[in-house]
């Protein structure tokens, strides 16, 4: 089975009128920070947050569409990746689901150009090893997997060995077995699956045999049945559908700037604020604040404010990504990795200004901006000038000049940002050093080597005077 997403997505890319990474002006720099690179470049991989706070990344495909068996762990405390046990079968286009048992289920996927027809696998975070579990009834890729309220995993649709699938299956962690659970009205892949507050699952869009779909269906786990839902306002595939804090669902992307909201109580769709960029093969992550962070297709990240129903600038990512993963960390930061390379980056805090030069005794108020948290506290990393700093960012340089201070801000989720302040020597000290240099015969005049020698000697003398004062405490 071929893995290309086909002419339809190519047309979406062309209709967007821009190449990946194009049109990247107008977003704020510095809100994203590079972190360690994965040991293996990958895309169409899967990621999950472990109970330890680390992030597990599994499988994917390389630049030659060859499936990958390796897995690795990201440690937010160090910003580094380390290999963990590989899967028994190379897989890309698969799903990874955290189970209530503490293990992690990998299902489906493609390998070496074919859909995987093999048992699913379980990852044990304590041992770092994989074990085989029951095989699904249908081999599939580009499907969805949703953890239900009862602890089972619902796997829906995708691409099978003979074409698109309408089948759905349930995995029971207690038995390690799969059972069929009804059939979709429309076979589809590249769709979304969202667990609603009611415990039901909303399936939206995707690519059907008739092309991109606007249709939606709802699965009821109490009786294992499917029912039609109101269709989306436009067809979408390779899009996202994110559950908001209100219980509504935000549908984004699929090659368009339009966004829609599904009211899970009323069962209806309505338009909401438009994105600034067309999105497809992107990620959408609900932040601790309730906002939704969208990353992918260009370096312009955006965030959706559900109260204002408006989109705002979420900064320029360091690289333009697609077919990547995005994982909400315990700190409230978001880790994006791969797609298509090995690099990774995280959201961070930016201090404004990040560099400043002040005279001794001068004051400046620093501010911080970022995606995570509102409770921010300031402190010194280095206070060479003997200055002062309030917990709200009001800084005053101390009496010692010719030194550098470093301050840090930490938000409620542990994200940090720093700023460096160069504290200039007092004007009286500079004047005194210049006078002393002249008395030593080092006249500072315009032009010639004499001015250079004078400036250097004056600087050396000033440094000696400052150090002598620090030692004597004066």
Which features would summarize this protein structure in a list?
single chain, 474 residues, mainly beta, Neuraminidase, Immunoglobulin-like, 3 domains, four-stranded antiparallel beta sheet, 3 helices, 43 strands, elongated, disordered C terminus
Summed up, what is this model?
The chain is elongated. The protein has three helices and 43 strands.
Strand order of the largest sheet: 1-34-33-32
Judged by helices, strands and strand pairing, the structural class is mainly beta
Number of DSSP strand runs: 43
CATH topology of the largest domain: Neuraminidase
Task: Assign the CATH class of the largest domain.
Answer: Mainly Beta
Radius of gyration: 28 Å
Kindly state the percentage of residues in helix.
10-25%
Name of the CATH superfamily of the largest domain: Kelch-type beta propeller
Rough shape?
A: elongated
Number of domains: 3
How many strands, which pairing sense, and closed or not: the largest β-sheet? 4 strands, antiparallel
CATH architecture of the largest domain: 6 Propeller
Number of helices: 3
Mean pLDDT: 86
Low-confidence stretches: 6-24, 442-458, 466-474
Strand portion, in percent? 35-45%
- Terminal Cα span: 79 Å
């Amino acid at each position: 089975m071929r893995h290309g997403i086909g002419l339809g997505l190519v047309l979406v890319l062309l209709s967007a009128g821009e190449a990946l990474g194009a049109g990247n002006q107008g977003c704020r720099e510095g809100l994203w920070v590079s972190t360690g690179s994965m040991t293996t470049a990958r895309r169409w991989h899967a990621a999950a947050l472990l109970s330890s706070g680390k992030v597990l990344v599994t499988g994917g495909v390389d630049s030659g569409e060859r499936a990958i068996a390796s897995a690795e762990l990201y440690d937010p405390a160090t910003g580094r990746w380390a290999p963990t046990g590989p899967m028994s079968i190379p897989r890309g286009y698969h799903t990874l689901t955290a189970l209530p048992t503490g293990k992690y289920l990998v299902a489906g996927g493609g390998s070496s150009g074919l859909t995987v027809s093999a048992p699913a696998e379980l990852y044990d975070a304590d041992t770092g090893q994989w074990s085989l579990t029951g095989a699904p009834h249908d081999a599939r890729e580009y499907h969805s997997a949703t953890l239900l309220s009862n602890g089972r995993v619902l796997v829906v649709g995708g691409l099978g060995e003979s074409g698109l699938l309408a089948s759905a299956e349930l995995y029971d962690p207690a038995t390690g077995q799969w059972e069929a659970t009804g059939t979709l009205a429309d076979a589809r892949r590249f769709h979304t699956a969202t667990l609603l507050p009611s415990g039901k699952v909303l399936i939206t869009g995707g690519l059907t045999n008739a092309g991109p779909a606007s249709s939606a269906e709802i699965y009821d786990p109490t009786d294992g049945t499917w029912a039609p839902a109101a269709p989306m306002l436009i067809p979408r595939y390779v899009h996202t559908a994110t559950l908001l804090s209100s219980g509504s669902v935000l549908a984004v992307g699929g090659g368009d700037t339009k966004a829609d909201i599904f009211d899970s109580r009323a069962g209806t769709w309505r338009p909401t604020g438009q994105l600034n960029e067309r999105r497809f093969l992107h990620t959408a992550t609900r932040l601790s604040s309730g906002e939704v962070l969208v990353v992918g297709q260009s370096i312009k990240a955006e965030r959706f404010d559900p109260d204002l129903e408006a989109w705002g600038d979420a900064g320029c990512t360091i690289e333009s990504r697609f077919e990547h993963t995005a994982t909400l960390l315990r700190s409230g930061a978001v880790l994006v990795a791969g797609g298509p390379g090995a690099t990774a980056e995280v959201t961070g805090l930016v201090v404004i200004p990040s560099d400043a030069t002040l005279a001794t005794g001068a004051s400046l108020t620093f501010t911080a901006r970022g995606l995570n948290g509102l409770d921010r506290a300031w402190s010194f990393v280095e206070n060479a000038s003997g200055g002062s700093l309030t917990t709200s960012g009001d800084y005053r340089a101390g009496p010692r000049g010719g030194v550098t201070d470093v301050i840090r801000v930490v938000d409620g989720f542990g994200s940090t940002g720093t700023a460096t302040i160069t504290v200039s020597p007092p004007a009286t000290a500079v004047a005194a050093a210049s006078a002393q240099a002249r008395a030593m015969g080092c006249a500072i005049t315009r032009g010639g080597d004499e001015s250079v020698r004078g400036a250097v000697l004056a600087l050396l003398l000033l440094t000696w005077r400052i150090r002598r004062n620090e030692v004597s405490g004066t």
